[in-house]
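> example.struct
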């Protein structure tokens, strides 16, 4: 929050799409109170599909989150809309697979105020969705972080092979495994590459274009990331967005900050210095061949230099960058990333360093003169982040005035919130009138330990009075306390968007397992909206045969220049390349790839394992409850 976020999305104790990233409702209530100081918002993720046995625990959890002050829920399962919920704002998760204007408009009509679009959409597709929505509906789009290679909500490999469902927050990340790709004749196209692993999302260069397309909420993927990553990437995008706000043309969209205060970063953000698998803007500006992170799903880091000499327990590096004890280094050996820590580094001269690693050189395969090194942990830069790395302040206008029996200090913040303090005092003329006002201003300007900074101060008195420092401090402290309380009391949560009546028909009359309908409440929801045939979710174990286990816009034929569309018009090649099936092999696992060229999509086909197919459905999940937050009504 201090690094510039206008909202934070966070998983509760259960039913979140990151099974191991849960937080207690008590902790969320504390975060809510902190965020609301800046009129920033907290969105709780309840974005898994729910079994019938889980509906009641989920309903109770929603009430607990609402009582804790949460501003909105991020939802995948439409069954929640059939439950007795508090009037909390609803956002449609990217797990809802929102790719078309019709789907987005349906969700808004059903009562969602904000829709998180699929990551695969291009700018023109986003603009088309924006044009189909009411003006007050908000489009959210992922701008940074790890990318699921499948359309969100359309990946079942993990459940098919292990019983761990991505739609239920427990993905085994089969997409990050190495695979061998073979063509229809069994010829090897790629050997043991991470073929379903894609680079990380980075839309830094596209923010202005995304604003023009209608995006108003920019989402950073951050769960399972450490604090340094979150600070760095949040600060990076805060700077970029502040620059857009300052440069926006008078004739352009009217943009304003969504929360209060200005962030001052005490370090230089750099998205390349924290975990990433390489960067891509995915499909925002069109299909590209280099979106894959085929060599490794690990963080290789930034190029550092070259090994020049090896000693008994050290090696020397030539680099134009400074090094530090504790740096993390990597190099590639036979397609495998090898990592090591530089325990001690010694400067030998300009551009030359001696490194004593944390393990014997004999344990570092392939390290030799000429080896290219990268750095994936810049210890000196991380130390800057470990200290106080940002502050966020709201501007104030103050008025100090005399009263009938003493003095008063009134404060007005940047949002128009007012508060003040008064103190009786036997007024006495200042002994040094020329210095009295200067000393008073200096005393009242000491807001350093608060969320505020004094932008201007009016002194309204009939003559310079003697004002003890202790009195000025007391007035400032009491006025700030009252202002903070007034800001919290003045924070208003958005109400639930009313659903259109009569219910808007769903864009389709039949739903396959891809709609993820896992409970009777979700079934009732779709029936109310005109759907006539509804198949059960894949997790219901009614799909015993081969089906699409993953649908993705990432196409391996395209990546290896085997796409019929690429061959079109190429002399001698046109008509020779067909979109025949291919296979992916990982150990004993074989997956068939089928290509839908009309939609430019790849389907990864397979069957559910027998032991998974026979496993029982989940039972009710226990939830830890928490009472109303302090001051809630």
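> example.seq
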């Amino acid at each position: 929050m201090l690094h510039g976020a206008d909202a934070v999305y966070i998983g509760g104790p259960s039913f979140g799409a990151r099974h191991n990233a849960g937080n207690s409702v008590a902790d969320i209530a504390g975060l809510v109170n902190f965020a609301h100081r800046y009129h920033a918002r907290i969105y709780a993720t309840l974005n898994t599909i729910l079994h019938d046995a889980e509906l009641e625990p989920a309903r109770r959890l929603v009430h607990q989150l609402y009582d804790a002050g949460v501003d909105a829920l991020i939802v995948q399962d439409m069954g929640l809309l059939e439950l007795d919920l508090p009037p909390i704002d609803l956002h449609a998760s990217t797990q809802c697979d929102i790719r078309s204007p019709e789907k987005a408009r349906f969700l808004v009509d059903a009562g969602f105020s904000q829709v998180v679009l699929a990551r695969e959409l291009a700018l023109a597709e986003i603009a088309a969705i924006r044009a189909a929505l009411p003006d007050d509906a908000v489009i959210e789009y992922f701008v940074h972080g790890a990318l699921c290679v499948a359309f969100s909500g359309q990946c079942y490999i993990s459940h098919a092979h292990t019983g761990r469902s991505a739609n239920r927050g427990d993905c085994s990340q089969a997409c990050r495994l190495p695979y061998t790709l073979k063509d229809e004749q069994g010829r090897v196209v790629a050997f043991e590459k991470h073929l379903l692993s894609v680079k990380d999302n980075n839309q830094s260069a596209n923010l202005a274009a995304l604003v023009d397309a209608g995006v108003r909420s920019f989402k950073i993927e951050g769960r399972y990331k450490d604090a340094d990553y979150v600070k760095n990437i949040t600060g990076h995008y805060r700077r970029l967005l502040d620059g857009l706000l300052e440069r926006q043309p008078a004739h352009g969209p009217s943009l304003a900050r969504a929360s209060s205060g200005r962030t001052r970063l005490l370090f230089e953000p750099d998205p390349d210095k924290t975990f990433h698998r390489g960067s891509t803007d995915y499909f925002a500006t069109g299909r590209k061949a280099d979106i894959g992170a085929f060599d490794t799903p690990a963080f290789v880091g930034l190029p550092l230099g070259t090994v020049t000499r090896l000693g008994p327990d050290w090696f020397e590096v030539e680099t134009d960058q400074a090094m530090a004890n504790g740096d993390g280094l990597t190099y590639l050996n036979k397609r495998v990333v090898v990592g090591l820590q530089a325990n001690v580094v010694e400067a030998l001269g300009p551009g030359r360093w001696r490194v004593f690693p944390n393990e014997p050189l004999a344990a570092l395969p392939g390290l030799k003169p000429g080896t290219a090194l990268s750095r994936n942990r810049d210890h000196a830069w991380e130390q800057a982040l470990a200290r106080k790395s940002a502050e966020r302040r709201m501007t104030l206008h103050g008025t100090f005035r005399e009263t009938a029996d003493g003095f008063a200090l009134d404060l007005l913040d940047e949002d128009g919130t007012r508060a003040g303090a008064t103190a009786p005092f036997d007024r006495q003329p200042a002994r040094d009138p020329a210095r009295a006002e200067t000393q008073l201003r200096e005393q009242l300007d000491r807001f350093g330990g608060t969320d505020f900074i004094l932008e201007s101060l009016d002194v309204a008195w009939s003559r310079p009075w003697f004002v003890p420092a202790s009195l000025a401090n007391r007035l400032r402290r009491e006025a700030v306390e009252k202002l903070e309380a007034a800001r919290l009391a003045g924070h208003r949560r958005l109400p639930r968007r009313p659903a259109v009546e009569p219910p808007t028909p769903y864009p389709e009359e039949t739903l396959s397992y891809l709609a993820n309908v896992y409970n009777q409440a979700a079934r009732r929801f779709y029936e109310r909206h005109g759907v006539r045939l509804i198949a059960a979710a894949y997790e219901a174990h009614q799909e015993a045969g081969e089906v699409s286990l993953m649908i993705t816009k990432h196409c391996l034929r395209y990546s290896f220049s085997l796409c019929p569309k690429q061959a079109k018009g190429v002399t001698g090649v046109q008509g020779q390349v067909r979109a025949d099936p291919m296979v992916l092999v990982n150990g004993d696992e074989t997956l068939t790839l089928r290509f839908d060229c009309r939609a430019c999509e790849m389907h990864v086909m397979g069957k559910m394992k027998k032991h998974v197919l026979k496993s029982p459905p989940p039972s009710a999940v226990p939830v830890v409850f928490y009472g109303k937050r302090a001051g809630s009504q």
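> remarks
The two ends are 25 Å apart (CA to CA).
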